[in-house]
Amino acid sequence: MSEQQSSYRQIMKATSIFGGVQVINILIQIIRSKVIAILLGPTGIGIMGLLTTTTGLITSITNFGLGSSGVKNIAEAHSNGNPTKIAHTLAVFKRLIWYTGVLGLIVCLCLSPWLSQLTFGNKNYTLAFVWLSVTVLFSQLSSGRLVILQGLRQLKYLAKVNVLGSVVGLIITLPLYYIYKIDGIVPGIIGSSLATLLLAWFYSNKLNTEKAKVTRKETVEEGKEMLKMGFFISLSGLLTVGVSYIIRVFINKTGGTDQVGLYTAGFAIINNYVGLIFNAMGTDYYPRLSAIAYDNKLCKKTINQQAEIAILILAPILIIFFVFIDQAVILLYSKQFLAINAMIYWAALGMFFKAVSWSISFIFLAKGTSKLFFWNELTANIYSLSLNIIGYQLWGLTGLGISFLVAYFVYLVQVFLISKKYFNFSFEKEFIKLFYIQFILAIISYLIISFIPKPYTYIVGTVLVGLSGWYSVRELDKRLNLKQILLRFKKYLSHY
Asked: What 3-state class would DSSP assign to 335?
């Protein structure tokens, strides 16, 4: 097996593991979303979105970006193969996680009345934020444990936490929503976050790593690098969550809570269902890129490979959504949510640019260029927020889909130019070719949906789905030798 083929297979191995996890999570999310849509409606989803976005904002302010900087430091220690260094890094990281988690709880608890007033325009949700303050601590502690699993490349344990967390969360929340309706939202959020924490704690404790004791002074001194990089990542994360928060509050005041619910549902489809590719790939991609960050040529090669696999997997899924969006929305939510279709069409086109820019942007974190990363994200968030507000003012929910497309196109140009200047990055011809082919198929699908009456759209659209899928399989076969993989899998099955 060639080195290049091995690299592609490493990408696909991680993707298949976490792709399977994401498929299970999606099935659970479909059930959960369907039930919530029926029991709570757009208003309930809007309230839930505002509560979780607000607590997410507090988490982003107080977590110092340790979820990202920690992965880099742990992955680097792991790549060196020094058990003592790994133990010391883990000890420092765990203590920093506790400090930041407790800080987040205190901040959310103290600001509860103000958060309710700012988010909902009244203090009726003060007690809700008081209760939810504990989820800020749970979130940081569970995030820390998941970072350890990710940094040490313990993908199977990480996958188990993700799957079991989703299953347990579903079991906890559905009875609460059924019995208490909107009043069950806060207990459901708390129960789900606690379940994830307990599972993450259990599986991270199964690792056979050395133990190390560190003093508070050592924690501060040796955690400076993590905190410095994490600080800029935290600021960036704060900006991202802040933009999400501001746009939701803006929609709530301009169009009402129902519109927030529709917006939340629409981008849940784009980010949770279609965007599962990023979650599946990113788990292994970031620590893998961090381990070779010293070599620009290796980084360029890895980024191009990651972008190729992302587009080849993502494109057929996006075209399926173009063709069968009505059925998808009704399946995932209800007919009340069909108003988000146009928004999803535009956002789906934007996902092509997001996939490529996503693959490139990890280099800023892998290289440890925290300031460059921050200014890059600050600029992106400024024009993203501006485009969202303009888009919603001009075209409502559809305008938010258009703004998503434009923002990610601009962002792709931005990260490409920066990485080319600082890290000598460029796209390979093979990637450019496959991107254009799949993107043109997606545009044709959009035009068919827009101008050809039903049911003919389904006939022509199905052909386009087949073409995109065939092309992806052919290109994946070139990179992975799928026949050899299938033969090995067949032998494995026959052995049992």
From this structure: helix
Give which of 279, 298, 426, 404 is closest to 353, Cα–Cα.
Answer: 404
Contact 139, 59 (CB under 8 A): yes
Q: Scan for tokens 């199905």, then name that residue.
A: 462
Cis geometry, peptide bond prior to residue 455 (ω within 30 degrees of 0): yes
Contact 253, 72 (CB under 8 A): no
User: d(Cα 307, Cα 301) in Å, to the nearest integer?
Assistant: 10
- The dihedral built from the CA positions of residue 147, 149, 152 and 154, taken in this order, carries a sign that is negative
Closest CA to 432 of 352, 318, 344: 352
Tokens of 111: 């600001």
The pair phi, psi for residue 212, each rounded to 5°, is -140, 145
Query: Which carries the bigger pLDDT value, residue 201 or residue 239?
Result: 201
Asked if residues 412 and 353 have their Cβ atoms less than 8 Å apart, the reply is yes
What angle separates helix 456-480 from helix 429-451, to the nearest 10 degrees? 170
Q: What's phi and psi for 481, nearest 5 deg? A: 55, 70
> b vs e for 308-331, b when ≥16 Cβ sit within 10 Å of the residue's Cβ?
bbbbbbbbbbbbbbbbbbeebbee
What are the phi and psi torsion angles at 428 (to 5°)?
Answer: -85, 150
* Residue after which a domain boundary falls, among 193, 222, 254: 254
**Residues 77, 71: Cα–Cα separation, whole Å:** 10
Q: What is the DSSP string of 350-378?
A: HHHHHHHHHHHHHHHHHTT-HHHHHHHHH
pTM of the model: 0.74
**Are 317 and 417 found together in one domain?**
yes
Exposed/middle/buried for residue 205 (C-beta within 10 Å: 0-12, 13-18, 19+): exposed
Residues 223 and 289 in one domain: no
Written as one letter, the residue type at 145 is R
Domain that holds residue 90: 40-254
Please report the pLDDT score of residue 270 as a whole number: 80
Kindly provide the residue ranges of all beta strands, DSSP E only, lying in 122-179, ordered along the sequence: none
Q: Do 220 and 246 reside in the same domain of the chain?
A: yes
Domain count, the chain: 2
- Report how far residue 315's alpha carbon sits from residue 401's, in angstroms, rounded to the nearest whole number: 18
pLDDT value at residue 496: 41
Taken in order 65, 67, 72, 76, the sign of the CA dihedral is positive
> Which amino acid, residue 426?
S
Query: Is the CA virtual torsion 32, 38, 41, 44 positive or negative?
Result: negative
- Cβ-in-10-Å burial (0-12, 13-18, 19+) of 224 comes to exposed
pLDDT level of residue 493 (50, 70, 90 thresholds): very low
